[in-house]
Model the fold of this input.
Amino acid sequence: MNTRNLLSAFALAALLFTSCGTKNAETQDEETSADEAITLSRTQFESSEMILGKPEKMKFTHKIRANGKVSASPSGQVQISSMIPGRIRQIAVNIGDRVNKGQMLCAVESSELIQLQMDYAESSGRLKSVQAEFERQQSLAGENIASQKTYLNAEAEYKSLIARCEGLKAKLLMLGLNAEKAGQGIIVKEMVLTAPIGGVVSALFVETGSFAEPQKALMELVDLNQLQLKLSVFEKDLTGLKPGLKISFFSPNNPSSAYSGELLSYSRTMNQETRAITVIGSIQPSDRPLMINGMYIEADIFTGEKEVMALPDEAILKSGNSRLVLVQTSSDGKLMNFVKKEVKTGLSSNGFTEILNPEGLENVLVKGGFNLVME
Done:
């Protein structure tokens, strides 16, 4: 084979290779274009119960999701303790019992209690004689008969004893004892602790015969009428918070039972660790008996309404970070053609999602699109 024939063979081979490459590229473009358009028959559309629709005006309620617990207000929860050391002789209540304000909770025997009454009886008994001596010295000093020093000593002793008697009397009253009877020498060996508020016994930390100390809590009471919501709201969700907003809350263990309340107040200090603030909400009076102090809850705080254009969630298809819908482009009665169109979404509520770019979405496949794409 001469040189001219060899060159011709190479040229022909190159031409065939280029032609094949062009046909492959054209075939690939046609496949890509076909993949973007989806065609189905009217029979398929109807048998699959597919539905066409378009974005509709809806009112979305904007809400903030928060979590927290049911908690008694500061004045609705008290811990009961003894003001003086002693032994618990009797406990009159049990956990879960309802008590009224002033009702007996327990009785505490104390030797210090007996000594306190004795000291008061002794001091109040001496007061009359010390007062009489002071008045006598005052009269003599006025007539320049007694020395001024004797008068001043009598005055100091009298005032000191008055202060002691008043102090002991105040202690007896704080312990719920009758100071007048103690002054008469009528001594009791125990004091009765009573409920400072009406409510429920939520905790009991001692038994009969236990030793009571001033710094040790004996039991805890909770007033169910003062239960409230104590929620944590993160920094990013603070916009729109104000007293009076409606709250819906539920226990994670029973999400189907939701209760309602109202935002009462919120703190103005940010927790530096959680980047959240504390929000206080009310509970409907009829729901309070169903609540348990310390119960964990989740809540929605409704901050307002917004009118949006929305599609059913089923109409929106996920593709990576994008959101797509299928829009009908044409139909000849037998065949229906659809194309994918990317949409921008916003809020979601009750099975619908806000569409931020609703233009050109007149015939959207709102039902059955997922199955069509998967096929």
